[in-house]
Design brief:
Length: 252
């Protein structure tokens, strides 16, 4: 059976229509998993740029989403094969993909910023589309909001003028993130389009992005190191497995 090629934009409906520190310190409720950071307004959450070497982890993240979430994310209930194809087709040169890692180095949340607009005379893109997903166990910790803020910073530093989100109208969480950021939301029946006008870049916005990038890289290295040390102490007999895994994640 042939699998239709999923469009490589954050949201399939749009395409059809348009042809560290260690973990942040926080008061964590008792029902919240300790290996996942929390993004309360006073917290910093490490957001890392993902590249071709992360395809496997990105696919694992998306395949872990339930059918209803896949529907919200892609605009259709993408099968595992369609997700794999989408991940294979991601163009990391053209677009940006960001992720939040758990202490176990899983991608707990990720966003895809696709540059879909016409190029500006200054070389930037006029419009980019944002798509995001957070694993159910990581939700309502502010990750969706933080990934959106990160995308805003990244996009404006590249001359993007408008951030675009296509969502189902039932997607309260996504539309809330957009509205809270000041986006204009236009509802057309079961689908909604949100547009956020971005301010031009400044020295501060570039410094802010640079600092975030450096801190997220440091955080990731610390997590890799902590995981390696943990493995060595907890199960010394698994030394070769630990070394293999460490080499793999260190290459990331
Ligand atoms: C949409 C999604 C990314 C939100 O991620 P999240 O990390 O849980 O969102 P946040 O914790 O940052 O919450 C953002 C806002 O939405 C609200 N919110 C979150 N989940 C909500 C829900 N189920 N119902 C109502 N509001 C919700 C939060 O209270 C917060 O509002 P506030 O800042 O005014 O308090 C996540 O639910 C998801 O992955 N859904 C499936 C895929 C999807 O819908 N992607 C978006 C389409 S591209």
């Amino acid at each position: 059976m042939s699998i239709p090629d999923p469009p490589v934009t954050p949201n399939a409906l749009t395409s059809a229509a348009s042809a560290s520190s260690p973990e942040p310190i926080a008061v964590v409720p008792s029902n919240v998993r300790a290996d996942i950071p929390v993004a309360a307004s006073w917290n910093w959450v490490p957001i890392r740029s993902l590249g071709p070497r992360h395809r496997e982890r990105i696919a694992a993240h998306l395949i872990a989403l339930e059918v209803s979430d896949r529907y919200l994310r892609f605009g259709y209930p993408a099968s595992d094969a369609q997700i794999s194809k989408y991940v294979d087709m991601l163009d990391f040169e053209q677009d940006e993909v960001f992720g939040i890692f758990s202490r176990r180095l899983e991608v707990i949340a990720m966003a895809h910023l696709a540059h879909i607009g016409i190029a500006n005379p200054d070389g930037g893109q006029s419009m980019s589309e944002f798509g995001v997903s957070v694993l159910p166990r990581g939700r309502r910790r502010g990750f969706g909001r933080r990934l959106f803020e990160h995308a805003v910073l990244h996009a404006r530093n590249r001359g993007v003028e408008t951030l675009f989100i296509h969502a189902l109208s039932e997607n309260t969480a996504m539309l809330k993130i957009a509205r809270n950021a000041g986006a204009t939301v236009v509802r057309e029946g079961s689908e909604s389009d949100a547009r956020l006008k971005l301010p031009p870049d400044t020295l501060a916005s570039h410094v802010g992005e640079f600092m975030e990038h450096q801190a997220a890289e440091l955080d990731y290295r610390l997590k890799v190191h902590a995981r390696m040390v943990n493995r060595l102490f907890v199960a010394p007999k698994d030394l070769s497995i630990a070394q293999g895994e460490t080499t793999r994640v260190a290459n990331d």
